[in-house]
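Readers outside the structure-tokenisation community will struggle with the description of the input data as it stands. For illustration, here is how one protein appears when written out as sequence plus structure tokens:
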Amino acid sequence: MTDTTAKPSVLFVCVHNAGRSQMAAGFLRDIAGDRIEVRSAGSMPADQINPIAVDAMAELGIDITAEAPKVLTTEAVQASDVVITMGCGDACPFFPGKRYEDWELDDPAGQGIDSVRPIRDDIRARIEQLVSELV
């Protein structure tokens, strides 16, 4: 057994916290279970999660309907070991000592399911790699 007090935490950040970051958080929860703490937030959160992102995840049996876009806080960044940004640019706060990654992903906003599936699948591959590095 590993020491659960040292559970790594990951924060996913995109502008609206409605698509990419929510799909990433959903995959991380599904793949890592309770081995990694998961957070997501947006620099300008939307009113609701992108319904096409919800549908794309549901195709793989992952339910993100209970999630809601959340505003990015300094505290969320400080409490996270890994901060993964997805196109939020300068709006993402930076703290020394954190691991930062910027994932260049197309924004699923306004796109149909056929366009969102490759984004979803790209996110899943990145999450699988991330989990293999953290646990």
